[in-house]
């Protein structure tokens, strides 16, 4: 009989210990599709360094100047942007791994099989023979919790409620797993606006200096060329931030949609293979 405290078994078709991308990279893998913050930051910082390193040979061009000669704001903006990319990439790989669980049939497909307190152990045994740690999988964790309750209490009428409760909790967990990226999507445009304010302040300060020191129109016209540097900073930092935030938001939207569809597929799997196989015991139909 399987026990909830059974040590993870790596000799199974679907092993979280060797299939989760964060585990393979030597970091503690976040539960389900949650991402390890330290790992995502290291990847994001590395991508930021590579990005600016790739621009360095072209520093004299307008494109490189947009990122490298507009004050500190673009550097922070790109760090948050690449950090967001790292989080979304890791989440996409973890989601793809979780989706593989849907391909495994852990409930006997025989038409005469009926799921009850007496047969719950058969399903649990098949789950533990399929994955190394059911608690790490959205789908199998739902089923194990519901069937453990069925095995211990013998009430099949509670199984559907437990599955629904687990589904609601996982949807809430999914929403919070995007909180960091959503915060960055908000913060990146703010950084752009801060760069705009700094650039305008620089331009206005330079213009005031020109007016105070120049006496001839020709001198003013020549000095105004230096004022435009502040305007470049003002508009380029906003442009970079808005484009970065837009791209991240689009990717986040599609990934979140895929994860919502996965949770719906898990709910359908449970209804078809668990709830649809339940048999109400005679004592549960008695009027109290």
Average pLDDT reading: 84
- Using DSSP, what is the number of strands? 0
Biggest sheet record: none
Number of helices: 10
Helical content band: 55-70%
Order of SSEs, N→C? HHHHHHHHHH
Beta content comes to under 5%
Bulk shape: elongated
* Cα radius of gyration in angstroms: 28 Å
Q: Calculate the terminal CA-CA distance, rounded to whole Å.
A: 33 Å
**Whole-number tally of structural domains:** 1
Going by helix content, strand content and strand pairing, the class is: mainly alpha
Low-confidence stretches: 283-288
Give an account of the 3D structure.
The protein is mostly helical and 288 residues long. It has one domain. The protein is 69% helix and 0% strand. It has 10 helices and no strands. The chain has helices at 16-19, 21-24, 37-55, 62-68, 73-99, 120-130, 138-153, 159-177, 179-213, 217-273. Helix 6 (120-130) packs antiparallel against helix 7 (138-153) and helix 8 (159-177) packs antiparallel against helix 10 (217-273). The longest helix has 57 residues, at 217-273. It is elongated, with a radius of gyration of 28 Å. Residues 283-288 have low confidence and may be disordered.
List keywords for this structure.
288 residues; mainly alpha; 10 helices; elongated
Q: What is the topological layout?
A:
Layout: H1 16-19, H2 21-24, H3 37-55, H4 62-68, H5 73-99, H6 120-130, H7 138-153, H8 159-177, H9 179-213, H10 217-273
Helix pairs in contact: 3-5, 5-9, 5-10, 6-7, 7-8, 7-10, 8-10, 9-10
């Amino acid at each position: 009989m399987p026990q909830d405290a059974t040590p993870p078994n790596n000799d199974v078709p679907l092993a979280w210990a060797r299939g989760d991308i964060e585990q393979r990279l030597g970091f503690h893998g976040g539960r389900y599709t949650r991402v390890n913050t330290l790992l995502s930051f290291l990847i994001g910082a590395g991508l930021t360094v590579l990005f600016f390193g790739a621009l360095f040979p072209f520093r004299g061009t307008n494109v490189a100047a947009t990122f490298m000669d507009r004050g500190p704001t673009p550097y922070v903006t790109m760090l948050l942007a690449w950090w967001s990319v790292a989080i979304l990439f890791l989440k996409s790989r973890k989601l793809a791994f979780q989706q593989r669980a849907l391909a495994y049939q852990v409930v006997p497909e025989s038409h005469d099989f009926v799921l009850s307190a007496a047969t719950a152990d058969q399903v649990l045994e098949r789950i533990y023979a399929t994955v190394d740690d059911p608690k790490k999988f959205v789908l199998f964790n739902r089923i194990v919790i519901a069937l453990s309750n069925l095995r211990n209490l013998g009430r099949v009428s509670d199984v559907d409620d437990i599955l629904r409760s687990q589904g609601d909790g996982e949807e809430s967990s999914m929403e919070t797993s995007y909180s960091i990226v959503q915060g960055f999507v908000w913060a990146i445009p703010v950084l752009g606006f801060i760069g705009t304010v700094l650039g305008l302040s620089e331009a206005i300060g330079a213009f005031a200096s020109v007016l105070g020191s120049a006496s001839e129109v020709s001198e003013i016209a020549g000095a105004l060329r230096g004022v435009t540097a502040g305007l470049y900073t003002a508009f380029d930092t906003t442009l970079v931030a808005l484009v970065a935030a837009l791209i991240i938001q689009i990717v986040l939207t599609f990934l979140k949609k895929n994860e919502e569809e996965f949770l719906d597929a898990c709910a359908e799997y449970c209804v078809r293979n668990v709830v649809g196989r339940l048999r109400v015991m005679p004592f549960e139909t008695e009027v109290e």
